[in-house]
Specification:
With 439 residues, this protein is mostly helical. Helices cover 63% and strands 2% of the residues. A hairpin with a 3-residue loop joins strand 1 (127-130) and strand 2 (134-137). It is globular, with a radius of gyration of 28 Å.
Protein backbone atom coordinates (compact mmCIF):
# COMPACT_ATOMS: atom_id res chain seq x y z
CA UNK A 1 0.00 0.00 0.00
CA UNK A 2 2.87 2.41 0.79
CA UNK A 3 4.20 2.13 -2.74
CA UNK A 4 0.79 2.87 -4.22
CA UNK A 5 0.41 5.88 -1.94
CA UNK A 6 3.86 7.14 -2.97
CA UNK A 7 2.97 6.84 -6.65
CA UNK A 8 -0.32 8.65 -6.00
CA UNK A 9 1.48 11.48 -4.18
CA UNK A 10 4.11 11.89 -6.91
CA UNK A 11 1.48 11.99 -9.63
CA UNK A 12 -0.63 14.53 -7.71
CA UNK A 13 2.33 16.77 -6.86
CA UNK A 14 3.70 16.89 -10.41
CA UNK A 15 0.26 17.56 -11.88
CA UNK A 16 -0.40 20.33 -9.37
CA UNK A 17 2.96 22.03 -9.98
CA UNK A 18 2.67 21.82 -13.76
CA UNK A 19 -0.76 23.46 -13.98
CA UNK A 20 0.63 26.98 -13.41
CA UNK A 21 3.20 26.90 -16.26
CA UNK A 22 0.73 25.09 -18.51
CA UNK A 23 -1.87 27.79 -17.90
CA UNK A 24 0.58 30.50 -18.95
CA UNK A 25 1.51 28.47 -22.02
CA UNK A 26 -2.14 27.98 -22.97
CA UNK A 27 -2.79 31.72 -22.75
CA UNK A 28 0.30 32.51 -24.81
CA UNK A 29 -0.62 29.85 -27.38
CA UNK A 30 -4.13 31.19 -27.74
CA UNK A 31 -5.81 28.02 -26.46
CA UNK A 32 -8.46 30.15 -24.79
CA UNK A 33 -11.59 30.06 -26.98
CA UNK A 34 -14.42 32.52 -26.62
CA UNK A 35 -17.40 31.64 -24.45
CA UNK A 36 -19.98 29.66 -26.41
CA UNK A 37 -23.75 29.67 -25.97
CA UNK A 38 -23.71 26.24 -24.32
CA UNK A 39 -20.94 27.13 -21.84
CA UNK A 40 -21.72 27.99 -18.24
CA UNK A 41 -18.59 30.02 -17.51
CA UNK A 42 -18.67 33.76 -18.20
CA UNK A 43 -15.06 34.54 -19.07
CA UNK A 44 -12.68 32.89 -21.57
CA UNK A 45 -10.65 30.27 -19.70
CA UNK A 46 -7.46 28.59 -20.95
CA UNK A 47 -7.56 24.91 -21.82
CA UNK A 48 -4.75 22.38 -22.33
CA UNK A 49 -4.85 21.29 -18.69
CA UNK A 50 -4.34 17.78 -20.05
CA UNK A 51 -0.66 18.63 -20.53
CA UNK A 52 -0.18 18.85 -16.77
CA UNK A 53 -2.15 15.65 -16.27
CA UNK A 54 -0.04 13.83 -18.85
CA UNK A 55 3.05 14.99 -16.96
CA UNK A 56 1.56 13.56 -13.77
CA UNK A 57 0.95 10.25 -15.56
CA UNK A 58 4.56 10.02 -16.71
CA UNK A 59 5.89 11.01 -13.28
CA UNK A 60 3.71 8.46 -11.49
CA UNK A 61 4.74 5.60 -13.76
CA UNK A 62 8.40 6.64 -13.53
CA UNK A 63 8.22 6.58 -9.74
CA UNK A 64 6.53 3.16 -9.82
CA UNK A 65 9.27 1.75 -12.05
CA UNK A 66 11.87 2.55 -9.38
CA UNK A 67 10.03 0.79 -6.55
CA UNK A 68 10.69 -2.78 -5.48
CA UNK A 69 7.29 -4.41 -5.87
CA UNK A 70 5.63 -2.19 -8.46
CA UNK A 71 8.77 -2.19 -10.58
CA UNK A 72 8.26 -5.88 -11.35
CA UNK A 73 5.10 -5.09 -13.30
CA UNK A 74 7.12 -3.23 -15.91
CA UNK A 75 8.84 -6.52 -16.74
CA UNK A 76 6.00 -8.97 -16.21
CA UNK A 77 3.15 -7.05 -17.87
CA UNK A 78 2.78 -5.30 -21.22
CA UNK A 79 -0.21 -3.28 -20.04
CA UNK A 80 1.92 -0.31 -18.93
CA UNK A 81 3.57 0.09 -22.32
CA UNK A 82 0.21 -0.24 -24.03
CA UNK A 83 -1.28 2.41 -21.73
CA UNK A 84 1.50 4.86 -22.54
CA UNK A 85 1.04 4.36 -26.28
CA UNK A 86 -2.73 4.75 -26.16
CA UNK A 87 -2.61 7.72 -23.76
CA UNK A 88 0.03 9.41 -25.92
CA UNK A 89 -2.13 9.15 -29.05
CA UNK A 90 -5.20 10.37 -27.17
CA UNK A 91 -3.20 13.22 -25.63
CA UNK A 92 -1.91 14.48 -28.98
CA UNK A 93 -5.39 14.25 -30.48
CA UNK A 94 -6.82 16.21 -27.56
CA UNK A 95 -4.18 18.95 -27.77
CA UNK A 96 -4.93 19.44 -31.48
CA UNK A 97 -8.63 19.69 -30.69
CA UNK A 98 -8.10 22.15 -27.83
CA UNK A 99 -5.98 24.47 -29.98
CA UNK A 100 -7.44 24.22 -33.48
CA UNK A 101 -10.53 22.05 -33.21
CA UNK A 102 -10.94 18.59 -34.73
CA UNK A 103 -13.95 17.26 -36.59
CA UNK A 104 -16.09 14.86 -34.56
CA UNK A 105 -15.63 11.95 -36.97
CA UNK A 106 -11.86 12.52 -37.13
CA UNK A 107 -11.79 12.54 -33.34
CA UNK A 108 -13.76 9.29 -33.22
CA UNK A 109 -11.32 7.72 -35.67
CA UNK A 110 -8.38 8.80 -33.52
CA UNK A 111 -9.99 7.26 -30.46
CA UNK A 112 -10.44 3.96 -32.27
CA UNK A 113 -6.81 4.04 -33.42
CA UNK A 114 -5.60 4.59 -29.85
CA UNK A 115 -7.80 1.72 -28.65
CA UNK A 116 -6.59 -0.51 -31.50
CA UNK A 117 -2.94 0.14 -30.64
CA UNK A 118 -3.54 -0.95 -27.06
CA UNK A 119 -5.43 -4.06 -28.18
CA UNK A 120 -2.55 -4.94 -30.50
CA UNK A 121 -0.18 -4.73 -27.53
CA UNK A 122 -2.30 -7.06 -25.40
CA UNK A 123 -4.83 -4.92 -23.53
CA UNK A 124 -7.90 -6.87 -24.56
CA UNK A 125 -10.73 -8.88 -23.04
CA UNK A 126 -9.80 -12.56 -22.99
CA UNK A 127 -12.86 -14.03 -21.32
CA UNK A 128 -16.11 -12.90 -19.72
CA UNK A 129 -17.08 -14.35 -16.32
CA UNK A 130 -20.68 -15.52 -16.22
CA UNK A 131 -22.27 -16.09 -12.77
CA UNK A 132 -23.09 -19.72 -12.11
CA UNK A 133 -21.26 -20.92 -15.18
CA UNK A 134 -17.71 -19.64 -15.13
CA UNK A 135 -15.48 -17.75 -17.56
CA UNK A 136 -16.55 -17.81 -21.19
CA UNK A 137 -13.66 -17.42 -23.63
CA UNK A 138 -14.03 -14.95 -26.49
CA UNK A 139 -12.29 -15.02 -29.85
CA UNK A 140 -9.56 -12.45 -30.58
CA UNK A 141 -11.92 -10.60 -32.91
CA UNK A 142 -14.68 -10.50 -30.31
CA UNK A 143 -12.22 -9.38 -27.65
CA UNK A 144 -10.95 -6.60 -29.92
CA UNK A 145 -14.47 -5.35 -30.65
CA UNK A 146 -15.43 -5.38 -26.96
CA UNK A 147 -12.22 -3.62 -25.92
CA UNK A 148 -12.36 -0.90 -28.58
CA UNK A 149 -16.04 -0.27 -27.84
CA UNK A 150 -15.37 0.03 -24.11
CA UNK A 151 -12.54 2.51 -24.71
CA UNK A 152 -14.57 4.69 -27.09
CA UNK A 153 -17.63 4.68 -24.81
CA UNK A 154 -15.66 5.61 -21.69
CA UNK A 155 -13.66 8.30 -23.47
CA UNK A 156 -16.78 10.01 -24.79
CA UNK A 157 -18.68 9.54 -21.55
CA UNK A 158 -16.01 11.41 -19.59
CA UNK A 159 -15.77 14.01 -22.35
CA UNK A 160 -19.53 14.60 -22.18
CA UNK A 161 -19.56 15.41 -18.46
CA UNK A 162 -16.71 17.90 -18.73
CA UNK A 163 -19.14 20.81 -18.64
CA UNK A 164 -18.87 22.22 -15.11
CA UNK A 165 -15.84 23.29 -13.12
CA UNK A 166 -14.33 20.29 -11.38
CA UNK A 167 -17.03 17.86 -12.52
CA UNK A 168 -15.09 15.51 -14.80
CA UNK A 169 -11.95 15.40 -12.66
CA UNK A 170 -13.93 14.75 -9.49
CA UNK A 171 -16.13 12.03 -10.94
CA UNK A 172 -13.18 10.24 -12.54
CA UNK A 173 -11.34 10.47 -9.21
CA UNK A 174 -14.29 8.80 -7.47
CA UNK A 175 -14.43 6.08 -10.12
CA UNK A 176 -10.68 5.50 -9.84
CA UNK A 177 -10.96 5.16 -6.06
CA UNK A 178 -13.61 2.48 -6.47
CA UNK A 179 -11.46 0.66 -9.02
CA UNK A 180 -8.43 0.85 -6.75
CA UNK A 181 -10.25 -0.62 -3.74
CA UNK A 182 -11.59 -3.46 -5.85
CA UNK A 183 -8.30 -4.21 -7.64
CA UNK A 184 -6.17 -3.93 -4.52
CA UNK A 185 -8.41 -6.36 -2.67
CA UNK A 186 -8.13 -8.91 -5.46
CA UNK A 187 -4.36 -8.54 -5.56
CA UNK A 188 -3.73 -8.53 -1.81
CA UNK A 189 -6.59 -10.67 -0.53
CA UNK A 190 -6.67 -13.38 -3.20
CA UNK A 191 -3.15 -13.22 -4.63
CA UNK A 192 -4.31 -12.43 -8.18
CA UNK A 193 -1.29 -10.75 -9.75
CA UNK A 194 -3.23 -9.74 -12.87
CA UNK A 195 -5.10 -7.22 -10.74
CA UNK A 196 -1.92 -5.31 -9.86
CA UNK A 197 -1.72 -3.21 -13.09
CA UNK A 198 -5.32 -2.05 -12.63
CA UNK A 199 -4.51 -0.97 -9.07
CA UNK A 200 -1.45 0.95 -10.31
CA UNK A 201 -3.38 2.68 -13.08
CA UNK A 202 -6.09 3.64 -10.62
CA UNK A 203 -3.59 5.07 -8.13
CA UNK A 204 -1.95 7.19 -10.83
CA UNK A 205 -5.35 8.33 -12.06
CA UNK A 206 -6.39 9.38 -8.55
CA UNK A 207 -3.19 11.42 -8.22
CA UNK A 208 -3.71 13.14 -11.58
CA UNK A 209 -7.24 14.17 -10.65
CA UNK A 210 -6.37 15.32 -7.12
CA UNK A 211 -3.48 17.40 -8.43
CA UNK A 212 -5.65 19.08 -11.04
CA UNK A 213 -8.80 19.69 -8.98
CA UNK A 214 -7.51 22.64 -6.88
CA UNK A 215 -7.05 24.62 -10.11
CA UNK A 216 -10.28 23.40 -11.69
CA UNK A 217 -12.83 23.89 -8.91
CA UNK A 218 -15.34 26.70 -9.35
CA UNK A 219 -14.34 29.28 -10.44
CA UNK A 220 -11.89 27.34 -12.59
CA UNK A 221 -8.57 28.91 -13.55
CA UNK A 222 -7.96 26.32 -16.27
CA UNK A 223 -9.89 23.58 -18.08
CA UNK A 224 -8.51 20.13 -18.81
CA UNK A 225 -9.91 20.25 -22.34
CA UNK A 226 -10.20 17.21 -24.56
CA UNK A 227 -6.50 16.53 -24.00
CA UNK A 228 -7.36 15.73 -20.40
CA UNK A 229 -10.89 14.34 -20.53
CA UNK A 230 -10.18 11.80 -23.28
CA UNK A 231 -7.02 10.66 -21.53
CA UNK A 232 -8.90 10.14 -18.25
CA UNK A 233 -11.57 8.11 -20.01
CA UNK A 234 -8.94 5.96 -21.70
CA UNK A 235 -7.19 5.23 -18.41
CA UNK A 236 -10.48 4.17 -16.82
CA UNK A 237 -11.11 1.84 -19.75
CA UNK A 238 -7.62 0.33 -19.53
CA UNK A 239 -8.06 -0.30 -15.81
CA UNK A 240 -11.34 -2.09 -16.55
CA UNK A 241 -10.01 -4.14 -19.47
CA UNK A 242 -6.81 -5.16 -17.72
CA UNK A 243 -8.80 -6.85 -14.96
CA UNK A 244 -11.88 -8.05 -16.82
CA UNK A 245 -11.44 -11.62 -17.97
CA UNK A 246 -8.25 -12.13 -15.95
CA UNK A 247 -9.89 -13.05 -12.66
CA UNK A 248 -9.59 -16.81 -12.32
CA UNK A 249 -12.55 -18.17 -10.29
CA UNK A 250 -10.56 -21.25 -9.32
CA UNK A 251 -8.05 -19.11 -7.42
CA UNK A 252 -10.80 -17.60 -5.29
CA UNK A 253 -12.56 -20.93 -4.93
CA UNK A 254 -9.35 -22.34 -3.43
CA UNK A 255 -9.49 -19.61 -0.79
CA UNK A 256 -13.19 -19.92 0.03
CA UNK A 257 -13.28 -23.74 -0.18
CA UNK A 258 -16.58 -23.81 -2.04
CA UNK A 259 -17.59 -22.80 -5.54
CA UNK A 260 -21.13 -22.17 -4.32
CA UNK A 261 -19.81 -19.90 -1.59
CA UNK A 262 -17.62 -18.17 -4.13
CA UNK A 263 -20.56 -17.37 -6.37
CA UNK A 264 -23.31 -16.72 -3.85
CA UNK A 265 -21.40 -15.10 -1.01
CA UNK A 266 -20.72 -12.11 -3.23
CA UNK A 267 -16.99 -12.65 -3.46
CA UNK A 268 -15.87 -10.26 -6.22
CA UNK A 269 -15.42 -12.61 -9.18
CA UNK A 270 -18.12 -11.19 -11.38
CA UNK A 271 -17.92 -7.55 -10.37
CA UNK A 272 -15.72 -6.71 -13.43
CA UNK A 273 -18.87 -7.20 -15.50
CA UNK A 274 -20.70 -4.32 -13.84
CA UNK A 275 -18.04 -2.20 -12.10
CA UNK A 276 -16.86 -0.50 -15.33
CA UNK A 277 -20.46 0.48 -15.98
CA UNK A 278 -21.31 1.56 -12.44
CA UNK A 279 -18.29 3.85 -12.04
CA UNK A 280 -19.39 5.77 -15.13
CA UNK A 281 -23.12 5.22 -14.70
CA UNK A 282 -23.96 8.94 -14.73
CA UNK A 283 -21.65 9.86 -17.64
CA UNK A 284 -22.89 6.82 -19.57
CA UNK A 285 -26.52 7.76 -18.96
CA UNK A 286 -25.76 11.31 -20.06
CA UNK A 287 -24.10 9.99 -23.23
CA UNK A 288 -27.02 7.72 -24.13
CA UNK A 289 -29.61 10.41 -23.44
CA UNK A 290 -27.68 12.91 -25.56
CA UNK A 291 -27.47 10.50 -28.51
CA UNK A 292 -31.19 9.69 -28.31
CA UNK A 293 -32.16 13.34 -27.84
CA UNK A 294 -30.13 14.63 -30.77
CA UNK A 295 -31.06 11.77 -33.09
CA UNK A 296 -34.75 12.19 -32.25
CA UNK A 297 -34.48 15.88 -33.12
CA UNK A 298 -32.92 15.04 -36.49
CA UNK A 299 -29.47 16.31 -35.57
CA UNK A 300 -26.07 14.67 -35.49
CA UNK A 301 -25.29 12.72 -32.29
CA UNK A 302 -22.07 14.75 -32.09
CA UNK A 303 -23.85 18.13 -32.23
CA UNK A 304 -23.27 20.00 -28.98
CA UNK A 305 -26.18 21.29 -26.91
CA UNK A 306 -26.97 22.59 -23.44
CA UNK A 307 -29.20 19.81 -22.17
CA UNK A 308 -26.76 17.54 -20.33
CA UNK A 309 -27.50 16.37 -16.81
CA UNK A 310 -25.39 19.10 -15.22
CA UNK A 311 -27.14 21.73 -17.33
CA UNK A 312 -30.50 20.44 -16.13
CA UNK A 313 -29.37 20.70 -12.52
CA UNK A 314 -28.57 24.35 -13.09
CA UNK A 315 -31.96 24.89 -14.73
CA UNK A 316 -33.71 23.34 -11.73
CA UNK A 317 -32.16 26.02 -9.54
CA UNK A 318 -29.00 24.51 -8.08
CA UNK A 319 -25.89 26.61 -7.86
CA UNK A 320 -22.77 25.65 -9.78
CA UNK A 321 -21.02 24.14 -6.75
CA UNK A 322 -24.12 22.32 -5.52
CA UNK A 323 -24.73 20.77 -8.95
CA UNK A 324 -21.18 19.41 -8.96
CA UNK A 325 -21.52 18.04 -5.44
CA UNK A 326 -24.80 16.32 -6.35
CA UNK A 327 -23.11 14.60 -9.28
CA UNK A 328 -20.26 13.58 -6.97
CA UNK A 329 -22.72 12.11 -4.50
CA UNK A 330 -24.54 9.93 -7.01
CA UNK A 331 -21.31 8.76 -8.65
CA UNK A 332 -19.85 7.78 -5.29
CA UNK A 333 -23.06 6.08 -4.17
CA UNK A 334 -23.23 3.87 -7.26
CA UNK A 335 -19.52 3.06 -7.52
CA UNK A 336 -18.73 2.45 -3.85
CA UNK A 337 -22.07 0.72 -3.32
CA UNK A 338 -21.10 -1.83 -5.97
CA UNK A 339 -17.71 -2.37 -4.38
CA UNK A 340 -19.31 -2.70 -0.93
CA UNK A 341 -21.62 -5.43 -2.22
CA UNK A 342 -18.60 -7.29 -3.56
CA UNK A 343 -16.66 -7.29 -0.30
CA UNK A 344 -19.33 -8.15 2.26
CA UNK A 345 -21.58 -11.09 2.93
CA UNK A 346 -24.37 -8.86 4.22
CA UNK A 347 -25.61 -7.62 0.88
CA UNK A 348 -29.03 -6.75 2.29
CA UNK A 349 -27.52 -4.26 4.73
CA UNK A 350 -25.59 -2.56 1.95
CA UNK A 351 -28.67 -2.36 -0.26
CA UNK A 352 -30.76 -0.88 2.55
CA UNK A 353 -28.06 1.68 3.29
CA UNK A 354 -27.89 2.60 -0.40
CA UNK A 355 -31.68 2.97 -0.51
CA UNK A 356 -31.57 5.37 2.44
CA UNK A 357 -28.81 7.41 0.80
CA UNK A 358 -30.84 7.48 -2.42
CA UNK A 359 -33.75 9.05 -0.55
CA UNK A 360 -31.38 11.61 0.94
CA UNK A 361 -29.96 12.36 -2.49
CA UNK A 362 -33.43 12.79 -3.97
CA UNK A 363 -34.31 15.24 -1.21
CA UNK A 364 -31.23 17.35 -1.97
CA UNK A 365 -31.93 17.06 -5.70
CA UNK A 366 -35.45 18.48 -5.29
CA UNK A 367 -34.44 21.15 -2.79
CA UNK A 368 -34.80 24.12 -5.22
CA UNK A 369 -38.43 23.13 -5.78
CA UNK A 370 -39.18 24.21 -2.23
CA UNK A 371 -39.04 27.92 -1.35
CA UNK A 372 -39.06 28.17 2.45
CA UNK A 373 -39.79 31.50 4.08
CA UNK A 374 -38.25 32.42 7.39
CA UNK A 375 -40.42 33.72 10.28
CA UNK A 376 -40.89 37.49 10.44
CA UNK A 377 -38.75 37.80 13.56
CA UNK A 378 -35.60 36.44 11.89
CA UNK A 379 -36.10 37.78 8.36
CA UNK A 380 -33.61 40.66 8.81
CA UNK A 381 -30.89 38.10 9.58
CA UNK A 382 -31.37 35.61 6.72
CA UNK A 383 -30.50 35.84 3.01
CA UNK A 384 -33.02 37.75 0.83
CA UNK A 385 -34.26 34.59 -0.90
CA UNK A 386 -35.75 33.39 2.41
CA UNK A 387 -37.54 36.66 3.17
CA UNK A 388 -41.16 37.48 2.42
CA UNK A 389 -41.21 40.21 -0.22
CA UNK A 390 -43.97 42.25 1.47
CA UNK A 391 -42.48 42.04 4.97
CA UNK A 392 -38.81 42.49 4.12
CA UNK A 393 -39.02 46.07 2.94
CA UNK A 394 -39.20 45.33 -0.79
CA UNK A 395 -42.26 47.25 -2.00
CA UNK A 396 -41.43 46.84 -5.66
CA UNK A 397 -41.21 43.05 -5.40
CA UNK A 398 -44.43 42.96 -3.35
CA UNK A 399 -46.25 45.11 -5.90
CA UNK A 400 -45.00 42.94 -8.73
CA UNK A 401 -46.11 39.79 -6.90
CA UNK A 402 -49.57 41.35 -6.40
CA UNK A 403 -49.85 42.20 -10.08
CA UNK A 404 -49.75 45.99 -9.50
CA UNK A 405 -47.76 48.22 -11.85
CA UNK A 406 -44.50 49.43 -10.44
CA UNK A 407 -43.29 53.03 -10.87
CA UNK A 408 -39.85 53.40 -12.45
CA UNK A 409 -37.27 55.26 -10.45
CA UNK A 410 -36.90 57.98 -13.13
CA UNK A 411 -40.53 59.05 -12.60
CA UNK A 412 -39.62 60.42 -9.17
CA UNK A 413 -37.13 62.95 -10.63
CA UNK A 414 -37.98 66.47 -11.70
CA UNK A 415 -37.72 67.58 -15.31
CA UNK A 416 -34.59 69.62 -14.55
CA UNK A 417 -32.89 66.64 -12.86
CA UNK A 418 -33.75 64.42 -15.81
CA UNK A 419 -32.21 66.92 -18.21
CA UNK A 420 -29.05 67.10 -16.10
CA UNK A 421 -28.75 63.30 -15.99
CA UNK A 422 -29.23 63.20 -19.74
CA UNK A 423 -26.35 65.61 -20.30
CA UNK A 424 -24.12 63.72 -17.87
CA UNK A 425 -24.90 60.45 -19.65
CA UNK A 426 -23.80 61.90 -23.00
CA UNK A 427 -20.63 63.46 -21.64
CA UNK A 428 -21.98 67.04 -21.35
CA UNK A 429 -21.15 69.17 -18.32
CA UNK A 430 -23.65 70.37 -15.77
CA UNK A 431 -22.68 74.00 -16.03
CA UNK A 432 -24.37 76.93 -17.72
CA UNK A 433 -23.29 78.66 -20.89
CA UNK A 434 -21.09 81.13 -18.99
CA UNK A 435 -19.45 78.59 -16.72
CA UNK A 436 -21.83 79.33 -13.83
CA UNK A 437 -23.03 76.22 -12.00
CA UNK A 438 -26.73 75.56 -12.04
CA UNK A 439 -28.57 76.13 -8.77
Amino acid sequence: MREYLLVLFVSAAVTYLLVGPVRKFAIAAGAMPAVRARDVHREPTPRLGGIAMFGGLLAGLLAASQLTNLGRMFVQSADIKALLCGAGIMFVLGVLDDKWGVDALVKLGGQMIAAGVMVWQGVTVISIPVPGYGPVAVTPTQGMIISVTLVVVMVNAVNFIDGLDGLAAGMVCIAAMAFFLYSYRLWLGYGINDAAPAALFSAVLIGMCLGFLPHNLHPARIFMGDSGSMMLGLMLAVAAISITGRVDPDLITDRTGSKTLTVHALVPIYIPLILPLTVIALPLADLLLAVVRRTWAGRSPFAADKQHLHHRLLEVGHSHSRAVLIMYFWAALIAFGTVAVSVTNTGRTVILAMAGLCLLGLGVLLMPRFKPRAPKAVQPFVPPRYRDAGEAGEPEAAAAAAGEPTTPAMAELSAEDKAMLGRLGTGATAVGPRGERRS
